[in-house]
Amino acid sequence: MQAEALTHGCTVRALNGEEDHVHLLATLPTTVTVAQLVKQVKGVSSHFVNQTLCPATRFKWQGGYGAFSVSGWDVEMIVTYIKRQKEHHRLACVRPELEAISVAL
């Protein structure tokens, strides 16, 4: 996912996931839309899972995704949250505003 974002000129600030969703915080150049990036990241990661990990059932992302812009003031807080995502879910101390809006890629 990170490598694919990089090929499109994006800067990945944080990337982490759970079994049913992924959080990605990235800076996009003006030449790349959110829709383009999500399409590419979902496509490459689906291909990787199906061809390399070979799950028992074919892996496919859900059709939709959530995306939102954030203030520069909030970037470090969001990076920390994403890096600690597994811990937040394990301890059931998720930030509803970050989980509800940023649904699975």
Please state the second-level CATH architecture: 2-Layer Sandwich
Number of helices: 5
Query: By CATH's scheme, which homologous superfamily applies?
Result: Transposase IS200-like
Structural class: alpha+beta
Please estimate the helix content. 40-55%
Q: What is the top-level CATH class?
A: Alpha Beta
The tally of strands reads: 2
Amino- and carboxy-terminal Cα gap = 11 Å
Q: Roughly how many Å is the radius of gyration?
A: 14 Å
Provide a concise account of the structure shown.
45% of the residues lie in helices and 14% in strands. It has helices spanning 2-7, 34-53, 75-83, 85-90, 96-101, and strands at residues 11-18, 21-27.
Describe what you observe in this structure:
The protein has helices spanning 2-7, 34-53, 75-83, 85-90, 96-101, and strands spanning 11-18, 21-27. It is of the alpha+beta class. The chain has a two-stranded antiparallel ribbon with strand order 1-2. The longest helix is centred in the middle third of the chain and has 20 residues, at 34-53. Residues 101-105 have low confidence and may be disordered.
